[in-house]
Each structure stands twice: as structure tokens, then as C-alpha cells.
Amino acid sequence: MRFIKKRMVFILILGQLFLVPQPLKAGALEPEEDGPAAIAALTLDEMSELVLKNNLDIQIAGYNAYIERTRGKGAESVFDTMFNARAFYLDDQTKSASTLAGTKTSTNEYNLGLSKKLPTGTTLSVDAGDTRTFSNSALTSLSPSHEAIVKFSLHQPIGSNFFGLIDRGSIKITKLDIANSDFEALGRIEKSLALAQINYWKLVLAHCQLKIGRQMLEKAETFYASSKKKHELGLIEEAELYAAQANLLKRKNSVETLMHQLLIVKNNLLLDLHEEDLNMQVIPLDVFSVKDVKISAQEHMNYAVRKNREYLQAKNSLMAKGINLSMKNNGLWPEIDLEVSLADNGLELEQDKAWENVSAENNPELFLGLTVSIPLENRAAKSQREKAQLEKTKALVELKKIEYKIMVEVINAVDAINNRKESIKLNRQIARLQENKLAFEEKRFAWGRSESDTLIRYQEDLLNAQLALAQSLFEHEKVSVELKSLENSLLEEYWQGQL
User: Fold this and answer.
1) Is the per-residue pLDDT at 440 higher than 80?
2) How far is it, in rounded angstroms, from Cα 229 to Cα 211?
3) Rounded Cα gap, residues 74 and 180, in angstroms
4) Cα–Cα distance measured from residue 488 to residue 494, given in angstroms and rounded to the nearest whole number
5) Domain positions in the chain
6) Does domain 48-71+172-265+288-317+395-493 fall into CATH 3.40.50.1380?
7) pLDDT tens, 267-318?
8) Alpha carbon distance 478, 471 (integer Å)
9) How far apart are CA 208 and CA 215, in angstroms?
10) Whole-angstrom Cα distance, residue 143 to residue 141?
């Protein structure tokens, strides 16, 4: 029992009043005698906090978001600093047509470099290298010789990918995708929490139904005992006694069914809590409550549009499509690359002196280059731009659709809540009237002025009225949870941290 840390008690099943399955009277099925049963008494808030900690679906949703976030580092890797090294050895003893060329040439070269791409699209590089050359050629004045060289380079796109527009745009789109992944994960977490809360209220309903069933069983038992006594006195026929006995068995069967339904609902809630001890009994401490105040649809619509994650995801998707369109517009530009490099070298017989000459002497090499590449038809870029424009328009339509869908769903949910409140009022009146009707008929039966069939029918009417009232109370709680989930306000009540 991992999740029960408060209000945990160990009691006998026999000692609980209608909260756990009870032994039935007059030959009803007895529960198995397994000893004490663990009882978890939980409020709705306590249950919700435990769900957020233990529910496996919630944990899976969190990991999905964490996995998606790794894409962010991958997208930003375009700006990583790159280190490169190069070394080679060449021994050339091939024959030459010239007697002055020599018969042996050997070259040792070592190079180290760093390069980094900036958010402006600028690629900066610095390279340093040493080349040792030996030749027995008569034309070589220094042999062996060392050439040390340091080179600074700059590459800047000023056409397509203008000052890094495409690179930065790709990163922005990835971040929006990650934000949408977080929204999706939070949405799944909230749905899991809403489902658990609905299961909690189902458990409250199941307890209420079982209590009602047992109360009606007691009435059936009392009626059967009374009918049995009247039959012994010759006041009623056997058919009426049979009807009373059949009614008693029907009530027993109903209680057994309600006990089974209670077990299923309880196990579903334990599944939400990821509790492995399915023998544990859960006692809900909250009860159905209804505020007799109508709620406003407009207020909830305004809140839902601001907070609904599906709507926020659609807004991010529209923003990403807009960025993609800008990137494709830039893709119509010709490729224009500016290249600048500045190098300096030193040449000596010894390596250390060659490096000293790099700074001591002035032997610069300056390179300026401009490369232009223009696709004359440019059909690929035009096609991609047209596709991006259509995708952006589609995203805008989808955003409007979601906004309208949220408005309709909120209006329906608010109306459902208000409707349930009216239904609860009427069902309470009906249950009260059915109770009064049955009480009056019971007196008439005791005076011998009523029949068994009438009394049994009135008991059935009261049972159905009380069950309908309990169901309407549950439906009110259910649609209230669904409205909070639709607004994405349910999770905020129990979780203020980051995903």
C-alpha cells in the first residue's frame, strides 16, 4: 500500500455501515471471511493528488513531453562549435621527366581548426597548420623547410538564408513544436485526472445506490414478515404471500448486483491510483453537493478560449506555419555567399622559427569572394512557397474551427450543469412524494385496505425515484468535472509546478 498515508485504518468488513459490502439478512449471500480489510478514507482532493503522483498514464504523458524536448538541443546544434584536425604524411619517390625535379619528396602536414556558426548565419573559422617539406631537388632552396600558417575565414549568406533567417526559423518552429508537445502532455494528464475524479464520484454514487438498495431490502423484509403473519392469520391469500417473497428475493438480487457494481467502480479507482492491493476498500469522504446558482456560459467561454490547450496548440501551429512561409519566401532568393579570409605564414628551416615569423613578419594573404547561384525557373522554391501559404491558410481555418468548437462545447456543458440542477430539484420532490405515497400505502396495508401488488409497486416507484435522484446528483458532478477539463482549469487546482 504505497499511496495510503492518511486516514488509513484497519477494520472488519462486518462493522461498516453500507460503505462496504455487508452480510444480508434472511439467507442472503455472506461475504468471504478473509479477516480485516484495509480501508482507505479519501477526500476528492487527496485522491486527486495521489493520482498525479502515481497514475501510470500521467507518467507516460510526462515522458512523451521529455522525449520531445530533446529535439530542442538537436535543432540548436547548427550553432555548435566544431573542432577539426588533419594530419598526413606523403613520401613521393616517383620518377620525373626532369633531372632537376629530384628523386624524393616527403611532406608532413598538421592542421587544427575551430569553426562556429552564429545566429546571423555567419560562419567564423580559424585554422592553424604546419607543413614540413623535404626534397632533394636542385630547385629547392630550403630543405627541409617548415611553413607555419594561421588563417581566419568568414562566410556570410546574404541571399537565401539571409543573415541566418532559415536557421533561426527552424529553431523557432522546433520550439513551438515542443511547446505543443507540452500542451498535449498536460492535456493527457488533465484527462487522466478528470477520469479519476469521475470514477471517484462513481464510487460515491455506487455507495449511495447500495445504501438505497439495502434500505429497500429492509422494507421488503418487513413487508414479507408482515405478509407471513397475515397469511398465518388467514387475512391474505397465498398468492399475496408469494408476491411478497418474490419481492424480497428481487431486492436481494438487486443488492448483490449493486455490490458487484461497487466492486468494479472501486477497482477502477484503484487502477487510477496505481494501487496493486485490489482487496483494499476505498471510502469516499466527499458527498454530492449542488449550489443552487446558475452559471454563465459567456464567462466560461472567455476563460476556455484563453486557457484551452487545444486552442493554444492551434495558435502555435499557425505561428509555426507563418515562420515556415517566411522561410520559403526567403528560399526564392538567389544564393549569394560572401567569403572573406585573411592568412599569414612563416617559412624557416626550423619549426619554432617558422611560427615566430608568423607574427614577426608581415606576409598576409587576403581573399574576398562573392558567389551567386540563381535557378532560372526556381520551380522547387516556388512550389514550396505555395505549399507553405496553403498550410498557413489551413492552420488559420483550423484555429477558427477549434475556437467555435470550444464555444459550442462550453455552452453545452454549462447548459448541462444548469439542467442537472433543475433535474435534481425535481427528482428530490419526486422522491419525497414517492416516499410519502409508500408510507401512506403501508398504513393502508396494515389496516387491511391495500393489496400486496400495490405496495410492491409503490416500493419499486420509491426505489426508482431515489436511484434517479442519486444518478442526477452524479451527473451534475460529472459534467462539472468535464467543464473544468474543457477549460483546462482542473489541473491548476492541484498542480502549480512545471511539467
Assistant:
1) yes
2) 27
3) 17
4) 12
5) 48-71+172-265+288-317+395-493, 82-117+122-160+335-373
6) no
7) 999 999 998 888 889 999 999 988 877 788 888 888 888 888 999 999 999 9
8) 10
9) 11
10) 7
